[in-house]
Amino acid sequence: SDFKILVREVFHKSLQILLEPIINLKNGIDLLINNESIWFYPRISVIIADWPEAATFCLTYKAFNSNFPCHFCMVTKDNLADINLLSSNIKLRNHEEMQEHFNKHTEKTVCIEPTFNFFWNLPNINIYLATVPDRMHHLDLGLFHYQIEYTRELLKSQKHSLINIIDQRLAMIPRYSGLKIFSNGLQSISRLTANEYRDLMKVMIFVVDDIYCNNNNKAVNNFIKNDDLVKLYQSWNEMYIISRYEKFSESDLVIFKDVMYEWARRFIHAFEFISPSQLKLPKLHSWLYHIIDSIRSYEIINGYTTETYESLHKDF
Fold first, then answer.
1. Which of 150, 155, 188, 223 has the lowest tally of Cβ within 10 angstroms?
2. What pLDDT, on the 0 to 100 scale, is given for residue 26?
3. Which residues pair with 131 in a beta bridge?
4. Percentage of residues in the chain having pLDDT higher than 70
5. CB 213 within 8 A of CB 226
6. What does the alpha-carbon distance between residue 76 and residue 25 come to, in Å, rounded to a whole number?
């Protein structure tokens, strides 16, 4: 609508005013630090945002079902759950091509909004790559939320009463300093905070263990063994722990990638037929295919996460 177009234009024109000093100082500035003159180039390194905010900065379509829903690359919506894509299948977005489509009025073909992007004129930044995956929104409030939600649906398909057993097991966990006890179970899962999801990560592997029999239940379509469900949560915890490393070597990144894809394989195997979208989740694709490059470019994930300042989502 005209109003939405106006909102996008005002936002990017506001950025132009706010960040004008960076453009004016593109040749650098001489700073006196500790009685020493240092030539300094001000620049924007990363944009820390959740998915809708990232789309606002990049001016890509926000809808998950758009033809090219990823603000990093031109992956199609049908390939969002494909974990076997080659690097040659992933074409990264860049300023030149996106601006060319804008100028030719073919922006719909690449799923960008018909608004001039301020960052196209800002030096030393590719906005499509600099808007990094945010761990709190991608994992805590994103993929782990889906994992819990789909686990509940999987258990319902086995036996509806298993949901009550999940809640009972959560409520029976002994109290421990710093660990939230879910005395009412997971009835209000949509209102959980990032910290509460992290507390769930610590206990869910024990909650789902041996909750139903491993023998194939022929009455259930696409039966998933309980052992496979437990290993899914184990893989998640391994991936999440590595994501919080304070330093990454190249060998760490190789291990991280292997662990991520191991979790993804188990996630897809368990929930592909439960998810309404067959797991065509932009956050799944973005995490698997773009977080490693973000670490290589901008170092540890802990240095660019919204949990640093978004206490509302983290704690309340």
1. 188
2. 82
3. 47
4. 96
5. yes
6. 39
**Interaxial angle between packed helices 226-243 and 194-208, expressed in degrees from 0 to 180 and rounded to the nearest 10:** 140
Handedness of CA 230, 232, 234, 237 (dihedral sign): negative
Tokens of 10: 């005002």
- Total-model pTM: 0.91
Please say if the pLDDT value at position 186 is more than 70. yes
77: tokens are 């919506």
Residue type, 97: E
How buried is residue 134: exposed, middle or buried, by Cβ count under 10 Å (0-12/13-18/19+)?
Answer: buried
Which residue intervals of 159-211 are DSSP H helices? 162-172, 194-208
Give the confidence band of 214 by pLDDT, cuts at 50, 70, 90: confident
For tokens 């890509």, the residue is 60
Q: What six digits make up the tokens of 122?
A: 């800002």
Place of tokens 């722990």: 241
Task: Check the CA dihedral 150-151-153-158 and report its sign.
Answer: positive
Going through the chain in order, the beta strands assigned E by DSSP cover: 29-33, 36-40, 47-48, 131-132
Q: Is the pLDDT of residue 316 over 60?
A: no
Report strand pairing: 131-132 vs 47-48.
parallel
Quick check: helix, strand or coil at residue 179? strand
| C-alpha span between 209 and 230 (Å, rounded) | 6
Counting Cα atoms < 13 Å in the Cβ hemisphere of 35 gives 0
CB neighbour class for 254 (10 Å; exposed up to 12, middle 13-18, buried from 19): exposed
CA distances from 199 to 150, 173, 186, 205, 227 (A): 18, 12, 12, 12, 22
